[in-house]
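Exercise 7. Predict the structure of Ribosomal protein L10 from Umbelopsis ramanniana AG.
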Amino acid sequence: MMPFNALNRAIRSNPSFTPIRSTLVSTQRTYATTASASAKAHPPRRTFLHNKYKTILADNRIALIMQFNNLNVKELTALRQELNQLGSSTTLTVVRSGIFASVLRETRFANLDPLVMGPTCVLHTNGSDAEHPTLIKDIVTLLNKNKKLMLIGGKVDETLLNFEGVEKVSSIAGISSLQSELLGVLQSPARQVLSILDRRPQELVMALDQHAKNLDGDSEPSK
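Solution. The predicted structure, encoded as tokens:
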């Protein structure tokens, strides 16, 4: 029997010999995976402000959005003090326009998004008409006195308003006053009908009395 080394030399000396590379087949099972883009993690400060602005819009029935120009700290403090005198927990919050715009896009007030740019602040309150019937009017009057503030719009209850809309709402009496006026209008016809109904029986009684007197006069014997 030919030794292994001699056999190996004989095979390699053959011109038609082509070496075969051995391939190790791994028995470890592999799985196809899909790379999913993870949601971008926002910095804690941005997340905090996003939630804060979202709460301002959700928890306050009035939120007015304004742009301000060169309003220094002293002027801002004085404005806040004037707003506090109105009562109804009226608060002025300076916001980061980019984050606040992203919050608006998540709500029904997304149409205000294009108007939010540059230095922006939000005046918000949850005061009711019953507590302060002229609250919106007083707020708008105060804001119009400050030339460094520009009111761009906002929301009252669940209604989206532009600047003109806020001005119109401020000129309307409070809900309680409107309800009283409406109730008076509705009750006026009812009072008129009741008056007519009360008058008709009295007229009928008077007519019957007169008819009875006429009958008595006809029945008396002529002298």
